[in-house]
Amino acid sequence: MSYWEALVRRTGVVFTQGPCNTAGDATGLGTQDFARWMDARCGKSGKRPKFVKLHVLLATRKAWPIFLAAKVTPGNRGDAPELPELLDRLDPELELGNVALDPGYLTRGRVEAITARGGRPVIEMRSNTTIDPSGPPEWKRMIRQQRRRPRAYANRLRRRDAVEATFGSFKRRLGSRIQSHRRHAQRVEVLARVVVWNLLGKIFHDRFA
To answer: 3-class DSSP state for residue 36?
Structure first.
């Protein structure tokens, strides 16, 4: 874990008391670099800005949601493979509650990773999701909870909206594009903005909570 990733964890954990409900997702931030592209069907080509991806776990209970763990990757990286590492980056003393995620994270391995960390997986189901008799017990338990108490499950899943709203506010306040060109500098710049967001959250809670 880098210095800035550790700083994200340190600035985020000060707000957590008791079981911490979280939501996970990723968003893209534009860069100053461009990549060539070509549409083979139309025969057109051009340049598109490259972007990096910010993967996060977010505490959803507060009026100002706080980032608990963050990782920056190239823009073409998938969301679900980064979840186990985000879980590992959470403060060891953090008591994890519900972890709300979109269907992109719906795999047995991710469900097991959340449960192993002490959390409760709350992942949006696909229409063809089934209980696999040979699957892990955590997977079966999550699907049964969704089927037996769909309204309660939907209420827990609704916390996922907080991370999408937070990404919007994050970009409006701190920018949706980064200025750095080198990959390491881009990662530092994005994580520094995450730390600033958490510190602004502390000021907000100290003043208005």
So the answer is: strand
Q: Is residue 207 part of a domain?
A: no
Which residue range is the domain that position 63 belongs to? 3-202
Structure tokens at 138: 């955590």
Q: Which amino acid is at 164?
A: E
| 85 closest CA partner among 27, 26, 146, 172 | 26
Indicate the number of domains in the chain: 1
- Considering the domain boundaries, does residue 208 fall inside one? no
What pTM did the predictor assign? 0.88
| Backbone conformation region of residue 140, classed left if phi is above 0, alpha if psi is from -120 to 50, else beta | alpha
Other CB atoms within 10 Å distance of the CB of residue 21: 21
Q: Look-up: residue for tokens 């994890």?
A: 96
Higher local confidence (pLDDT), 157 or 49: 157
- Where residue 119 falls (left for φ over 0; alpha for ψ -120 to 50; beta otherwise) is beta
Tokens in use for 41? 């069907």
DSSP category for residue 34:
E
Distance CA 11, CA 20 (A): 15
Is 75 a member of any domain?
yes
Q: Is a pLDDT exceeding 60 seen at residue 43?
A: no
